[in-house]
Amino acid sequence: MEECEILIIGGGPAGLSAALYAARGGRKTCVLERGELGGQLTAIANIENWPGDRTVSGPALGKRMADHAAAFGARLLGNTEAMSVDLRKKTTKTSHGEIRFKALIIASGAREKKAGIPGEKELHGKGVSYCATCDAPFFQNKVVAVVGGGNSAFDGVAALSKFASKVYLIHRRDTFRAEKAMQEQANGPKIEKLLNSEVVSINGKGRVQGVVVKNNQTGEQKEIKLDGIFFFMGQEPSTDFLGGELKLDKNGFIITNEKMETNVPLVYAAGDVRATPLRQISTAASDGSIAAVSAEKALSALKEEDE
């Protein structure tokens, strides 16, 4: 069984920042990331609100963060998923073996919510997607729709408009939540915005061929012919591997204090997986740094007690 002092589940901005601080603090540090190191950064084409970079691609920033943590000795395990965690025994079962830890930082992030409408599950990967950066090139000169009204939806519009011949932006409310700068960029002849509207079903045989959209004010429904649909309807925490020991808020996010401590000693949470008023790359990095410093101090205090 592999052993490390501080185990970090999640290799996004929170997890990699935690790894940097933990490794620099002299702790044997391991990071588990179920996908590519960088986490959700790898699905963002351009980032304009990371301090110090006017614009930077998500994959490039993720690689820089990973390289930085690795340079100080952090062991980074990409494509390695945490299957379950035993907080009492301080062990985790992964897709590649078992790891014992002294302190745990949960930085597993959040994932896009599903719409739960007819055709969504059946046509997933056949025109239904949750990652515009990943799949936009498949829709060269095609008609697509983006569902959502926040920053991630507008990121999707920006990525898709480079390839698609037309992009519908569908939002159930009468105003968008995205930052003003992002809204101003989403203009042009390719983009059509449908407010007070929601998709009620996805149609197609073998792949997406159209959607039915309902106007929430009039109740009128109409079918729009298109080739792909991308959902950005908010997020839910990635905590499937956890038991029921940690305190969660009503939406399932982990509750912490300002030190990123959970209700279980030597277990911390950082980034999008925790209950927080703002989920941004910069705040995730901050959370990870705080969690690592808190864990290091707690481990040092335990050693002093033993001595």
Could you say what the CATH architecture of the largest domain is?
3-Layer(bba) Sandwich
In whole angstroms, how far apart are the ends? 26 Å
Number of strands: 17
Order of helices and strands: EHEHEEEEEEHEHEHEEEEEEEH
What is the C-alpha radius of gyration, as a whole number of Å? 21 Å
CATH class of the largest domain: Alpha Beta
Mean pLDDT: 94
Let me know the CATH homologous superfamily of the largest domain. Answer: FAD/NAD(P)-binding domain
Helical residue percent band: 10-25%
What structural class is derived from the secondary structure elements? alpha/beta
User: How many helix segments?
Assistant: 6
Overall number of domains: 2
Give the CATH topology of the largest domain: FAD/NAD(P)-binding domain
Shape: elongated
- The proportion of residues in beta strands is 25-35%
Low-confidence parts, pLDDT < 50 over ≥5 residues?
A: none
Q: What characterizes the major β-sheet? A: 7 strands, mixed
Give a nutshell description of this structure:
With 307 residues, the chain is of the alpha/beta class. It is 23% helix and 27% strand.
List its traits.
FAD/NAD(P)-binding domain; alpha/beta; 307 residues; seven-stranded mixed sheet
